[in-house]
Amino acid sequence: MWTLADVPLPLAPSLHITTDAIAQVVGDIDVRRVEADFSGVRPSAVLVLFADDDNGDAGVLLTRRSTALRNHSGEMSFPGGRIDGDETPIEAALREAYEEVGLDPASVEIIGELNHLATVVSRSHIVPIVARTQSQVALAPASHEVERVLWVPLAEFIRTDTYRAERWTVPWGERVLYFYELDDETVWGATAHVLTDLLKRLSRARH
Questions:
Q1: How far apart are CA 113 and CA 92, in angstroms?
Q2: Three-state secondary-structure class, residue 24
Q3: In a domain? residue 117
Q4: What is the rounded distance in angstroms from the CA atom of residue 15 to the CA atom of residue 3?
Q5: For 124-146, what is each residue's pLDDT tens digit?
Q6: More confident residue, 200 or 170
Q7: Is residue 47 part of a domain?
Q8: Closest by alpha carbon to 99, among 140, 70, 43, 129?
Q9: pLDDT for 155-169, tens place per residue?
Q10: Could you tell me the pTM of the whole model?
Q11: Which DSSP letter does residue 123 get?
């Protein structure tokens, strides 16, 4: 069951956001490294990549997962996946981004991390690695796991007609889920959780 949750928009609409502002906020984060409260969890990392457009407005890189995948099929997500062997989360996030969308690791500047989170469906402990590039380079699916690659302006996520929150009652408890209804895609789940975490931090930094 779910009900609409009275959770306000994380950031004021029409606010100009740049990658410099993101870097400053993320650089000050005391990261919360949560532990999963269920068994069989596997370490993962995602690359939360930003770049300014020609007007100086930050956009974030997102992919749509293939509908043929077993978990989170067809969902919008950041490039990312399992951490292999002795890899660090940064190494895993960069490798996955290269494998999924052809992103050159040498073009990426690592900024920091956001709060870790765990997902029940895919049994993942996720480390969000925040990074930026100098421009919104053209990228395309480079793996069968990815159907679409796009840069989305952060301004799209702070429109009042885009955002909503729902309170879900599930077997493992009650959770608030965030949804961002873009023009032709819906961002929700872990990806929306990470974006909301960042937008809330940007909001607090402006006050």
A1: 13
A2: helix
A3: yes
A4: 29
A5: 889 999 999 999 999 999 999 99
A6: 200
A7: yes
A8: 140
A9: 999 988 899 999 887
A10: 0.89
A11: T
The residue type found at 157 is: F
pLDDT at 67: 66
Any bridge partners for residue 152, and if so which? 60
Buried b (16+ CB within 10 A) or exposed e, 174-193: eeebbebebeebebbbbbbb
**Residue reference for tokens 């885009």:** 162
**pLDDT for the residue 113:** 93
> Residue 39 pLDDT more than 60?
no
pLDDT for position 111: 94
Amino acid identity of 194?
V
Indicate whether 183 pLDDT > 80: yes
Decide: residue 58, CB within 10 A, 0-12 exposed, 13-18 middle, 19+ buried: buried
What is residue 156's three-state secondary structure? Answer: helix
In angstroms, the CA 1 to CA 174 distance is 10
Cβ neighbours of residue 119 closer than 8 Å, sequence gap 6 or more: 126, 189, 190
Q: Give me the residues paired with residue 77 across strands.
A: 63
Whether 5 is in a domain gets the answer no
Q: Which of 97, 4, 62 is nearest to 187 (CA)?
A: 62
Domain of residue 93: give its range. Answer: 16-154+190-201
Tell whether the torsion through CA atoms of 193, 178, 202 and 23 is positive or negative: positive
Alpha helices in the chain (DSSP H): 19-27, 89-101, 189-205
Say how many domains are in the chain.
1
Report the CATH number that the domain containing residue 124 is assigned in CATH.
3.90.79.10
